[in-house]
Predict the structure.
Amino acid sequence: MNLEIPETPRRIVVVGGGHGGGAVVGFLRQYGFAGTITLIGEEPVAPYHRPPLSKAWLKGDVTVDGLALKPGPFYSEQNVELRLCVRVESIDPAARCVALATGERLPYDELILATGAYPRTLPLPGAGHHNVMTLRNLADAEKLRGALGPGKRLAIIGGGYVGLECAATARALGAEVVVIEKAPRLLERVASVPISAFLQRYHERHGVGFALAANIEAIEGTDRAEAVRLADGRRFPCDALLIGVGAAPAIALAAAAGIACNDGITVDDDCRTSVPHVFALGDVAKRPHPLYQRALRLESVPSSMEQAKRVAAVITGREPAHAEVPWFWSDQYDLKLQIAGLPFDADELVVRGDPEADKFAVFHLRDGRVVTVEAISAPPEFFAGKKLIASGKVLTAAQLADLAVPLTELIA
């Protein structure tokens, strides 16, 4: 008599409880994966939306439940084991298991690394004071929220998206704000000159002060940060200090396991790492992008979602979707900045609309093809630009700049 031996369910372990980790477990179940899934996160809460931390959370407009990526019952209903407040100490690729700080060892058939990124700090005297903060997770945001309010003085080091979003929120809550930036303009690495200039003017209209091309000498204060002192002698008193100078990929766990890393965990088109049965996705992953013929590490929710879908499709044997045009957004005051594409090798810049009307778009072209669009409170231009980037249609600068030329005609 032949006895059939039941097949052992496939085991997936996901390391990282951020947007990418939370999304991939959902797509795995949606795509029919029937094996076991364990999601391990170091925070005490289930995966949640992080963009609202610098806005709605600081204002008190959203609760923890409102931030949640999935409803509370989702994990139990979908038979996903959620391990919170747990740190993964090491990966053993040969034995296909991970070691936890609790002493446990969890075996896997497929491992997904979604370890994200951590905020960069500055090697400055006084940077360790309790009221010197960064913003990356819910605990950071809650600490910052307690430092804002009427009469409070917030100094922000870094004129990037996080710094500007927090500046806008802090002003809405009545705090005095100064933004200190090393570069000669805001968003120097990620936005065009017209966008930088517009946002500076808009923030100044709302009472934010700026110190650009600034070299910081020290953070003053004995027991707490009391002021930021610049090399030129200027001094900015503060009750709290926020450092927003970018994030670095959390690669230590992968690197220690012998997984190839280079400003992120190196992956292929399907988010596979250099080690068999190990994937990486989200802010930590550096992957080749077919639209740009180069490897990129993109810190954005849309990118994390796209990669989560791809990993789930590969594991379940589905045909992965084509790579999307990268896109990003930032909400500041009543403005919405939407960006599609990346301006590699752009040779022409076109402004459509009137910046003085607080509604316009900047198109970046290469050989007559749109490669990037930056839209300030101009969703139609954003969506049209995104389609033009994907299609590669050749246009003239005059066509893009002329508001009498309908967007429907441009993308036809």
